[in-house]
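Need the bound structure for zinc ion, inputs here:
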Amino acid sequence: MVHNRQFYGKTVEMRVKMNKCPFCESEKIIEFNETEYFQYGADPDGIVLSAPIVVEFCNSCDEKWTDWRSEDSRQKAVETHLATKGIYLCTVCKSVPVDVSDGVDTCGRCLLSQGIT
Ligand SMILES: [Zn+2]
Ligand SMILES: [Zn+2]
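Answer from helper R.:
Posting the output first, comments after.
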């Protein structure tokens, strides 16, 4: 099962949900919501952020995993946290903080790779 979503400005196909356990191929998958706490940044400046995630659980082999929805959620938590400090991430790679005060929201490397100077 695939669905289209906006990703970095391009529409790409992403798998919505695994309907089979990647470990034992069972189809007895349970999905539930959880809040994940994770550290962002290294000590001593590191901070613990929380993000609502979707956990997939296999009722057959007891494995647990998360997919891109949880990735998105963690990413949003990081962005929200940074925004409160006036820091914004590059809109292309979503990992390099950029100074938006001069109207640029893309990091130097992404600007180069896009051929924009
Ligand atoms: Zn399994
Ligand atoms: Zn970038």
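Comments: Residues 9-16 have pLDDT under 50 and may be disordered. The longest strand covers residues 29-40.
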